[in-house]
Amino acid sequence: MSEPVTILGLESSCDDTAAAIVRHCDGAAPEILSSVVLGQTDLHEAFGGVVPEIAARAHTEKLDLCVEQALADANVTLDQLDAIAVTAGPGLIGGVLAGVMLAKGLAAGTGLPLIGVNHLAGHALTPRLTDGASFPYLMLLVSGGHSQFLIAHGIDDFTRLGGTIDDAPGEAFDKTAKLLALPQPGGPSVEAEAKSGDPTRFSLPRPLLDRPGCDMSFSGLKTALLRERDRLVEAHGGLRVQDRADLCAGFQAAVTDVLAEKSRRALSEYIASNPFDPVFAVAGGVSANMQIRAALETVSKEFGARFLAPPLALCTDNAAMIAWAGIERLRAGLTDDMTLAARPRWPLDQQSPAMLGSGKKGAKA
Fold it and tell me: At which positions is Fe cation bound (predicted)?
């Protein structure tokens, strides 16, 4: 058994400031020694969404406090670490930059290796942290900013089977919550409201199910919900409590149906080339939705695939996944120097054409 590797991970790509310590020794399960996440919901609540400038400032103020707390909780000192891992993209550039600069300072001050991690890879490698998944496996990465089916062949080797061509599901949940005057973040608010709603009352669309392939679209669904809301407001002089619950239930059911059907197609394609011991994993904030998670597990059973979903605390943005990805990269000899740059865009599959366009900042996904 090799010597244990202990890494500090930093995450600041959106509106969660996080630090974590993860330790791993070959032949044993990884240990999350500490995981600190400081949210910013109260800072953005009045704006109905994340304000990048406010998020960046909060990261700058909180990152060092997160690191101190993570070290204290893990009972670890800086000289007991083997490396510093940090989200280097994609994300809101101000927040990513804050994390990268702190990581560089820590690496320079301690002499420890610096490891830049793709935030999406952190989510995509979570099944290896939580369940010891072996490559290759099928991953549905479904979050506020991203939605894509990936075959994970290795720590730096991903093949995209499909993804969203517009809004990600998490983004659609947030916008739906805003349309219905529900608090942010939208995912938990819509899910809670949907529990008392009728998912069959409104005929909401299931976009792209009439087309082959694994690509998804949620913008039209959001627009359809807006029209139903406006119709109800005009008819009743406002949105009644049951109307809102039914709209949430209908919206959630539509998203669930789309993700389930697209998962069937992705599983068919994946299993065709990987028929032995197939694994279907899900990660990202939307994977915390219990209805969606249950539907994906049912689809996985249809194909005889092992279904993996992270604990709820590891669904949303966290630094434990970044520390774990750092351990994987360190063991593969993949470290960075002080030229490590913060990247607003950083697709995992860099061979496939960009789905959401490109530009000076690079491909979005």
Answer: 119, 123, 317
